[in-house]
Amino acid sequence: MEVNVQYVKMKSSETLNTYLAKKLNKLARKYEWLIRAEVFFKKGQDKTGMDCICEIELSAPGPRIFARSNSNYYESALKETIRDLERQLEKRHSLFTAK
Fold first, then answer.
1. Which of 8, 42, 43, 63 has the smallest number of Cβ neighbours within 10 A?
2. Which is it for the CA torsion 32, 38, 43, 48, positive or negative?
3. Which residues contact 53 (CB under 8 A, 6 or more apart)?
4. Whole-angstrom Cα distance, residue 89 to residue 84?
5. What is the pLDDT of residues 41-84, one digit of tens each?
6. pTM of the model
7. Are 55 and 66 in contact (CB under 8 A)?
8. Which domains does the chain carry?
9. Which helix (H) or strand (E) holds 6?
10. Measuring CA to CA, which residue among 67, 39, 70 is closest to residue 52?
11. Across the strands, what pairs with 75?
C-alpha cells in the first residue's frame, strides 16, 4: 500500500511516521486490497486543547474510506482514526465475502 503523509501547520515527526507505518502495515496485511492511504496531521485551533487532528483517507475498490479524529496528542488521534477505519473496513470486508 502506498502511503502519503502531510503535516499541516506543524513540523514533521519521525516518531509519528514510525507509529503510523506500524499501524497502517497492520491494516495492509489484514486487508490486502487496500491501494493507498492519504494521511494528514493538522494543528487545529480548539480552545479545549484537543487541537491535534489526524485524517486518513484509504483508497480501495469501491468508495473511498475516510476517518478523522482529534485529541490532545497526535498519537491518540491516530489511534482513534485507525480504530474508525478498522470498523469501516470490517463492514466492507463482510459485504465482499457475503456475495
1. 63
2. negative
3. 40, 41, 42, 43, 44, 68, 69, 70, 77
4. 9
5. 999 887 777 789 999 999 988 889 999 999 999 999 999 999 99
6. 0.90
7. yes
8. 2-98 (3.30.160.100)
9. strand 2-8
10. 70
11. none
CA 54, chain centre distance (Å): 7
| Residue with grid cell 473496513, as numbered in its chain | 89
User: 55: which strand partners?
Assistant: 40, 68
5: three-class secondary structure by DSSP? strand
Which cell numbers hold the place of 53?
A: 487532528
Residues 69 and 87: beta-carbon distance below 8 Å: no
